[in-house]
Design brief:
Elements lengths: L23 H28 L7 H17 L4 H17 L27 H12 L8 H11 L5
């Protein structure tokens, strides 16, 4: 058998969570859902930092927000208008994207440091985030998406 005629398309690296057979509309929908998930996680992290009486959101805070949102987000009724809005933003972004464009995030990045401390606040958000952090390692994902999210959340470097 001629090796050049063997189809190796079944051997994927696993890095592409959106199959190439999925249409553009579905890719945009998935991206919109994941964007919404990320936004909710960052909002949770910001609240947690504020309630911890800190000023700097760290990768550990983002990771904690992602951990908590994996449980909340999967159970939320996603508001159709939010997803639709994200889809329009994504379409607009890609239609206006040029290779020369580069966003300047320098105003949001700091070299300042502060001691990390957990929130002792008793509000529902902080209690949930602290509990999620305690239970995270024993949690067993049930769906493919949960497995993918957990694996990637665990890869976040939080030094």
């Amino acid at each position: 058998m001629d090796p050049s005629k063997i189809d190796f398309s079944f051997m994927k690296s696993g890095n592409n969570i959106i199959d190439n057979d999925v249409g553009n509309a579905e890719k945009i929908r998935i991206t919109a859902i994941l964007t919404t998930y990320m936004q909710e996680a960052v909002k949770s992290a910001a609240i947690y930092v504020e309630h911890s009486e800190r000023k700097i959101i760290t990768p550990k805070d983002i990771q904690l927000g992602l951990k908590m949102e994996i449980f909340l987000f999967m159970k939320k009724e996603l508001k159709k208008e939010i997803i639709e809005n994200e889809k329009e933003i994504i379409k607009d972004f890609y239609s206006n994207l040029t290779e020369e464009e580069e966003e300047d995030d320098s105003e949001y990045i700091t070299n300042e440091t502060e001691d990390y401390k957990i929130s002792n606040c008793k509000c529902g958000k902080c209690v949930q985030m602290n509990l999620t952090n305690k239970l995270w390692n024993s949690w067993k994902p049930e769906t493919n998406l949960e497995h993918i999210l957990k694996k990637n959340i665990d890869l976040i470097k939080i030094e």
